[in-house]
Amino acid sequence: IQAWGEGLRSRINARPPETMTDYRDFVVQHEAPVVSHEIGQWCVYPNFDEIAKYTGVFRAANFEIFRDSLDANHMLDQAHDFLIASGKLQALCYKEDIESQLRTPGIGGFQLLDLHDFPGQGTALVGVLDAFWDEKGYITPAEYHRFCGPTVPLLRVAKRVWSADEPFEGVAEIAHFGSQPLDRRCVWRLWDVHGRVVRHGPLPSRMIPIGNGTELGPVRFDWSDVKAPAKVNLEIAVEGTDIANDWDLWVYPPAPPCSVPEGVHVAHALDDAALAVLQRGGRVLLLPARGSVAGDVGIGFSSIFWNTAWTRGQPPHTLGILCDPAHPALAGFPTDSHTNWQWWYLISRSQAMVLDELPPTFRPIVQVIDDWVTNRRLGLLFEAKVAGGRLLACSMDIEDDLDDRLPAKALRESLLEYMVGENFRPAEELRVEDVRGLLRPPRLIDTLGAWVLRTDSHEPGYEGENAIDGNPNTIWHTAWTPTPPDYPHDIVIDLRRPVRLRGLTYLPRQDMRNGWVSRYAVYVSDDPDRWGEPVARGEPPLNRELKTIRFDTPMEGRYVRFVAVAGLEGQRFASVAELDVIAGDGP
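^ that's the sequence the OP posted. Answer follows.
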């Protein structure tokens, strides 16, 4: 579900959660047995209690450095919470990684990188056990064996998030590698969060052979009686044994779009209008515009892969979220204290706010656990008293495509209901400049509403729009399959109206060197089919730094064309993380 170099483009980060994917298309291409190598590599936050175990010639100096960094950033009191919450996410990632293998007919086997941590090579905290083979406290052997053992029930389902007006449909399977076939009946049960079975049914009786890809039968039920958002757990078990496996699901009742109630002002920046509402003692929901959050944190749904130090800073740079499920702001949003699958719909469209400059005791409602190397205080949702009013800031997208993102719709409704209620009484107070310091001025390309008119090519999932989305972790990449076209490559941006320009900025991809541009040309025109001479040419330094390209003379035009004339080390393809334009006549 994650390969080297995929970063935020991996299945677990880029595609909605499901349990359908397997690797049969690859397996059938080979006559020899196929064994997956070093799958997983999912990280967890360090357990600083482990430091005391190093009583011999080795010293956990790396952990001491990470601990001291966390302490310096005023979060040492949260170290254990970070461990448990990130560990729950790590276990979730491993479960889906392993089940994807077990769902694959004909797979010869799989090999984890390890069950325990590897303290070298940048500190690879990839184990559910520590370097001493001891448990860390967030998953037991019995829980692990439910999805990784001789016999594992499996579920194929197209999604983990459902609307209550959709009948649930899935298919039960089993992977059985015991000593002999299994003559047992299997059943399914649906559990609520209170430990009650709310639906159940038998699966057709059959002899379970040795091997995987064995279908047990359909799992179908109706949940149209669900009237409030709910988390449930679907279990498939082999009767008369302790063999069972389970999957968390979320169901949301159909509801019209949640309108903004009277008394709540929605703002996308802490502008004069929002500030005026606060100064009158009003309530403001701050939803920062795309690309306007300062910091460029490489946030993803999954845990860190291997580590950031030895993957050239490959995102994600985060280890999931930490929250209090009992907080009244989350009353209408079923959640655990850690990342679970429904959070994908929010984290995949989020910008982590860097809260380091806020008072040391300030904690967000939804906190993001940072890489142990940087230990930034990060948040996705916080509340505060500001300028005499009450502010709730959410840097997750709770405005767009809500009918296709039911968790985001539910969170939006939960937050708005909280804001008009009596419980919305923030305890912490922030200055206006504190909040504004979390944001940066909107980019000109966003202010103009610019869009990508065309590219010469793109690989699916790496469209040109990624080059102007304000996210340095997404990229435009020219096609590389089946045969990459050669240079030059170009991308044309429509600014929607003529603008006087004096340059543009170009950010290379950040996760690796593939596609870096070694020579470029820039054109400006009012006609996207007639360009004339380039307004700038150059050979940028080959590094990850932002490049500022100045025009010799300011030019006015509606369309901007960035041409990658040549690439790196003879490569045929090009990539761009971000482009922006610089307006005006100044230097």
